[in-house]
Amino acid sequence: MGRVAGRVAFITGAARGQGRAHAVRLAQEGADIVAVDSCSDVPSLEYPMATVDDLHETEKLVRDLGRRVLARQVDVRDQAGLDQVAADAVETLGGIDIVSANAGVCGCRPTFDLSDTEWQDMLDINLTGVWHTVKAAVPHMISAGRGGSVVLTSSVVTFVGAANVAHYNASKSGVVGLMKTLSAELGKHGIRVNAVHPGNVATDMLFSDSTLRVFCPDLANPTPDDLRDRARTGDVLGQGWVEPVDISNAVLYLASEEARFVTGVSLPVDCGRRIG
Ligand SMILES: NC(=O)c1ccc[n+]([C@@H]2O[C@H](COP(=O)([O-])OP(=O)(O)OC[C@H]3O[C@@H](n4cnc5c(N)ncnc54)[C@H](O)[C@@H]3O)[C@@H](O)[C@H]2O)c1
């Protein structure tokens, strides 16, 4: 019997990286998956988003585990699109029990060099997109009356601060405020709301040129190995980064009955970066 057997998990940003890992890990533990991703680049960002092929690959990985999957190309800035996917999930998969609001983007620039567009895109995707996601999914959970778990993806940056990511930190700190208020409002429905705060995670976001340059501003063409050398010194376990599945295991815990009395918490998975 899997740890989330028979549940349906609604996951945004599921085409690659952590979102795909969450889809696979929850499916391994018996959940059916709603996999949402925009699969579309954002002009104000310096690295590409996932592709439709990436989303199909997530779909295949879940199906190969014997679980049902509903995969849709929708941008979290599109409330009507998310509402439609949630309605379709209820119709075809029988409801929604778990929400992983994971879709997010990152950019790096000194605060006063940020354009208004960079600022607004970051807030629209990382914060308003999370609000849209819970607004689409949670009313179905409330009306079904069987409780559930909502896990919002924040970042370790909210604990430590970091130069050149004001818009990112503002968005991820906003997610924590949203998490706390939602946990207060939804407890009476048996719905728990928590945040996971990844440190560095080995995904395309971390290995984008713009992020590599933040860690290695003195190098002309920094590589992931350069980043690892420097990032290792920043965490107490000396790792530099974790794998996407390490975040998935935290999401799985928060989604499962093992965390049945855990709500309103911020859970870092950061190798101790915030205290290093
Ligand atoms: N990688 C890290 O080091 C790290 C650290 C802390 C927090 N995070 C957070 O973890 C989450 C997952 O990031 P990741 O590391 O897997 O990066 P990633 O870039 O590999 O994956 C992000 C996914 O979100 C999708 N996406 C982006 N904008 C979207 C939108 N508007 N609508 C729908 N989907 C959209 C992308 O297409 C992509 O598939 C993000 O919220 C990110 O901010 C990442």
UniProtKB/TrEMBL annotation:
<protein>
    <submittedName>
        <fullName>Mycofactocin-coupled SDR family oxidoreductase</fullName>
    </submittedName>
</protein>
<comment type="similarity">
    <text>Belongs to the short-chain dehydrogenases/reductases (SDR) family.</text>
</comment>
<dbReference type="InterPro" id="IPR020904">
    <property type="entry name" value="Sc_DH/Rdtase_CS"/>
</dbReference>
<dbReference type="InterPro" id="IPR036291">
    <property type="entry name" value="NAD(P)-bd_dom_sf"/>
</dbReference>
<dbReference type="InterPro" id="IPR023985">
    <property type="entry name" value="SDR_subfam_1"/>
</dbReference>
<dbReference type="InterPro" id="IPR002347">
    <property type="entry name" value="SDR_fam"/>
</dbReference>
<dbReference type="Pfam" id="PF00106">
    <property type="entry name" value="adh_short"/>
</dbReference>
<keyword id="KW-0520">NAD</keyword>
<keyword id="KW-0560">Oxidoreductase</keyword>
